[in-house]
């Protein structure tokens, strides 16, 4: 995981935490109470001025925002909600893929709960840093599940895959019976284009099948990471174990990103092949 990705995730999380602090119920109540007091009870004491309520309300609001931002539990809850909103399983229509995203999010939330019960210290800080990698891991899982969902529901690609073999056989028969050089040349060019499209579609299908198995594999790996966090929380693994865990997470994220890149490339080639035929 690159430093840029980590910084982007932290920036999004920070914005979500600040937004939560500003728009939480306590903030709304403080603002409403300040307005009501300033309007209906402007001078409860002889020396009191109505704008004292505004100052008092501003101080109260500042304290609410400060405690919200500095409270670790609130911050983690906000980040978990942000991830569920950003990588919403509900946007994936295929049930099996949607369930995998839900499972990945549940693993992350349980890992957060485990770390929360760990003793404060350097090890816990290091474990929290590792969860940034897990968030990026979930991002890749969501991207693969979303791409599989889109592919399986793409009627055009599947129609092309079904129609191409018969279309290629027909063109080969026409080529065998054609004597006109210009027509032969045109049929050969069409055959070459359709053959390239068929190869790209087959490669895309193979890669999508690989992605399904990889999705299963990476969820199993995420479950293994969850069990490793349990061992660390039980103090059966020390700082070295935590560092190896972070490295395993980085490797998983990079492997998933490589798969996503290859899926994107093959899908683009397949769609380009369709428009060229």
What would your notes on this structure say?
It is a single chain. The chain is an all-alpha fold. Helix content is 86%, strand content 0%. The chain has nine helices and no strands.
Task: Chart the SSEs and their pairings.
Elements: H1 3-23, H2 25-40, H3 50-70, H4 72-86, H5 95-116, H6 122-152, H7 155-176, H8 181-233, H9 239-276
Helix pairs in contact: 1-3, 1-4, 1-6, 2-3, 4-5, 5-6, 5-8, 6-8, 6-9, 7-8, 8-9
The count of strands amounts to: 0
Q: What's the number of structural domains?
A: 2
As residue ranges, the low-confidence spans are none
Helix content: over 70%
- The average pLDDT score comes to 77
H/E element sequence: HHHHHHHHH
* Secondary-structure class: mainly alpha
Brief account:
With 277 residues, the protein is mainly alpha-helical. It has nine helices and no strands. It folds into two domains: 1-71, no CATH class; 87-276, no CATH class.
For the structure shown, list the relevant keywords:
single chain, 277 residues, 2 domains, elongated
């Amino acid at each position: 995981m690159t430093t840029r990705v980590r910084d982007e995730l932290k920036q999004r999380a920070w914005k979500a935490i600040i937004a939560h602090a500003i728009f939480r119920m306590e903030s709304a109540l403080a603002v409403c109470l300040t307005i009501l007091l300033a309007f209906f009870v402007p001078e409860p004491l002889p020396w009191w001025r109505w704008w004292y309520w505004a100052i008092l309300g501003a101080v109260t609001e500042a304290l609410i925002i400060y405690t919200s931002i500095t409270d670790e539990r609130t911050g983690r809850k906000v980040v978990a909600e942000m991830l569920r909103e950003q990588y919403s399983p509900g946007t994936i229509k295929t049930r099996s893929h949607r369930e995998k995203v839900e499972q990945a999010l549940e693993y992350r939330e349980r890992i957060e709960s485990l770390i929360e019960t760990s003793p404060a210290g350097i090890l816990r800080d290091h474990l929290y840093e590792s969860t940034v990698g897990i968030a990026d891991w979930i991002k890749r899982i969501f991207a693969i599940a979303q791409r599989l969902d889109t592919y399986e529901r793409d009627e055009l690609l599947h129609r092309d895959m079904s129609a191409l073999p018969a279309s290629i056989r027909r063109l080969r028969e026409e080529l065998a019976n054609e004597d006109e050089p210009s027509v032969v040349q045109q049929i050969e060019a069409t055959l070459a284009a359709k053959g390239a499209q068929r190869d790209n579609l087959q490669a895309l299908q193979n890669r999508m099948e690989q992605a399904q198995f990889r999705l299963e594999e990476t969820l199993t790996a995420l479950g293994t990471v969850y069990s490793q966090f349990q061992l660390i929380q039980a103090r059966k693994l020390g700082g070295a174990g935590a560092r190896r865990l972070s490295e395993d997470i980085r490797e998983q994220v990079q492997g998933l990103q490589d798969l996503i890149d290859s899926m994107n490339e093959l899908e683009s080639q397949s769609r380009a092949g369709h428009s060229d035929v």
